[in-house]
Write a structure and sequence with these properties.
- By secondary structure, this protein is mainly alpha-helical.
- Helix 23 (448-458) packs antiparallel against helix 24 and helix 30 (567-580) packs antiparallel against helix 31.
- The chain has 31 helices and 5 strands.
- The longest helix has 24 residues, at 179-202.
- Helices cover 65% and strands 5% of the residues.
- The chain has a 5-stranded mixed β-sheet with strand order 4-3-2-1-5, with helices on one face.
């Protein structure tokens, strides 16, 4: 969202990028039938209800930033790639019917002028209705209330343990249809508890953070919950990883004696072994144990912070894979304590170019940051990260300059960088740069949405640019998901011969199927031949679970035969197949129904 509260740049092309084609189409249908209601925007957050297949409407949340959509969420169970149809419908409402969105002040604004008595009544009422709120209040007030003072804070570890036990899955949940939802619930509740430790760390109170983390870990390390959860829920692993990161920073923030350092190293190593069951043998807390052992007196750390090591010289052959995590925690602490030169020296010695550049921006050394990025960055992802940091500091032109340099780099997230720069440059009124970024985004990840984004920006220049883009698709060798995206562009532009040529080069149904559907009228003979080649192996091999798929292919062949006035020949083909495979009792009635249909 822009600083003056105006809507950021939102386009339908951007929504297409966020969603799979089917989700976009269904979301558009939901929008058109008026399924979206109660759309409210509070600051950078938009929430809405969308009527779906359940009795209760789904709740959609959209988080905005100055470049458009920052994050989306929906209460529906959709877990495939891209955003769901409900989120598409809400975004289309924001774009097409902005007047239907009710503007409301953020909660922070609502309570800004409220008196203490009113807020107390509100909080007590919430806690009475929701016990989990009472637990959070108890923990936060006990552990964080005096975190910024010099007095040691007493931690209510029993309250924390109760909340951990409430978060853990209970016996009898294994194999339950909601096992994944149970895992997500556990992860979310644990993350709220970890936030207590993070708050203490930010306040410089490492001792309190360690007490909170120890109470959490004591309950988790028993492992009695591990066999109750699926092993493929990323959020659970993320939370355990966050626990490790918090421990690293806590042991480096706390003022510990040599004996206490040794004790924490031992405890963390022991806990690490107890996590083996769920983590598949991967270390969980060894990084924190090493951080406890090193403290700040490690000789290499002291040399690096003093600037006595050259760039990248911090590392040696004995360093383990998690050593970089410890450096990251040290940099966070140095930043918090405003030890800027030590931060820059350590970042340079450890080869953390992104952290080095971010600190230059933070210190308002903008020209240095730009020069450093152009000289040292080698991936689009690094350029994107710094560009966002510059934009957050209201350095728009510097952000565009770094992002433009990123377009010249190859590697991870080039398409994401190009889309970000396209939207940001368009918002800044730099149409030429926005168009350059849009073309790069299409070339890096060709799709209907990136194609349409170029068209929007090209305006009167669209003709020759469009020809060049299509020619680039013809000359490249597309495979995998990229082929499926490319073929959708060909279909959109009615370049049917190119679409067929690409479909012929691949065996992927995701590529062949949309082409067949698109050219039934225009290329019926190809559709008939291709559909037969898809159906025949299924029937010949007796894949009875896939007979319906085979019949769908034959139905497409029938539609094409009708378009080509060859329906009698098609009927003879299907009848012959039915007679030759009469013993396949599941298939025979399906073919009879198909013949009756035509």
């Amino acid at each position: 969202m822009t600083s003056d509260g105006e809507w950021p740049t939102l386009t339908e092309a951007t929504v297409r990028e966020l969603a799979r084609s089917k989700s976009y189409e269904r979301g558009q249908t939901y929008y058109e039938r008026g399924a979206v209601s109660d759309v409210v925007r509070r600051g950078e957050t938009v929430r809405a209800d969308v009527e779906g297949s359940q009795y209760q409407p789904y709740t959609v949340t959209i988080e905005l930033d100055d470049t458009g959509v920052a994050r989306t969420d929906c209460s529906c169970p959709y877990d495939h790639s891209g955003i769901c149809k409900h989120r598409v419908a809400v975004l289309l409402t924001c774009i097409r019917d902005p007047e239907s969105v009710r503007e409301q002040p953020p909660v922070s604004t609502l309570i800004a002028d409220a008196d203490r008595e009113t807020l107390e009544e509100l909080l007590v009422g919430l806690a009475a209705d929701r016990p989990e709120v009472a637990n959070v209040i108890e923990t936060r007030l006990t552990t964080m209330g005096d975190a910024t003072t010099d007095t040691a804070v007493s931690v209510n570890t029993e309250s924390i343990r109760r909340q951990v036990n409430h978060a853990l899955p209970k016996p009898g949940k294994k194999g339950h249809t909601d096992a994944y939802a149970e895992a997500e619930r556990m992860a979310n509740e644990l993350d709220e508890l970890l936030e207590q430790a993070r708050m203490a760390i930010e306040a410089g109170d490492g001792e309190t953070a360690l007490d909170v983390l120890a109470a959490i870990t004591d309950e988790l390390a028993s492992g009695r919950w591990a066999n109750l959860l699926p092993y493929d829920v990323p959020r659970v692993f993320e939370v355990i990883d966050d626990l490790s990161q918090a421990f690293i920073e806590a042991v480096l923030t706390a003022e510990l004696t040599k004996s206490e350092h040794d004790d924490w190293e031992e405890r963390l190593s022991e806990w690490d072994g107890q996590f083996d069951y769920y983590m598949g043998g991967e270390s969980t807390l060894l990084a924190a144990a090493d951080a406890a052992a090193q403290g700040w007196d490690d000789e290499r750390v002291q040399q690096a912070m003093a600037g006595d090591l050259g760039e990248g010289d911090f590392w040696d052959d004995n360093d383990v894979w998690y050593s970089d995590d410890i450096v990251t925690a040290r940099l966070s602490i140095l930043d918090r304590e405003n030890r800027i030169e030590e931060y820059l020296n350590l970042a340079a010695a450890a080869g953390q170019t992104r952290a080095f550049a971010r600190m230059l921006v933070q210190e308002d050394r903008i020209e240095e940051a730009i020069d450093y990025a152009i000289e040292r960055f080698s991936t689009p992802d690094a350029a994107l990260e710094l560009a966002k940091a510059l934009r957050a500091n209201d350095e728009t032109q510097a952000a565009l300059q770094v992002a433009e340099h990123g377009l010249t780099l190859d590697g991870y997230r080039k398409d994401t960088l190009a889309v970000w720069l396209r939207n940001r440059a368009a918002s800044a009124g730099d149409r030429e740069l926005a168009l350059e970024a849009a073309i790069t985004a299409f070339e890096a990840s060709p799709s209907v949405s990136t194609f349409e984004a170029v068209a929007e920006l090209a305006a009167d220049d669209w003709g020759p640019i469009k020809a060049d883009l299509l020619e680039s698709l013809r000359t490249e060798s597309s495979g995998g998901t990229r082929a499926a995206q490319v073929v959708e562009v060909f279909i959109r532009e009615e370049e049917y011969d190119d679409a067929i040529e690409l479909a012929n080069r691949t065996e992927r149904t995701s590529v062949i199927e949309p082409v067949v559907e698109a050219v039934i009228e225009e290329r019926p003979q190809w559709v008939i031949s291709t559909s037969k080649s898809q159906a025949e192996p299924i029937i010949e091999q007796g894949q009875h679970d896939s007979y319906r798929t085979a019949v769908r292919w034959l139905r497409r062949a029938g539609k094409a035969a009708r378009a080509a006035n060859d329906l009698n020949e098609w009927r003879e083909y299907v009848e012959t197949m039915r007679d030759e495979h009469y013993q396949k009792y599941k298939l025979r009635p399906m073919l009879d129904d198909l013949l009756e249909e035509f």
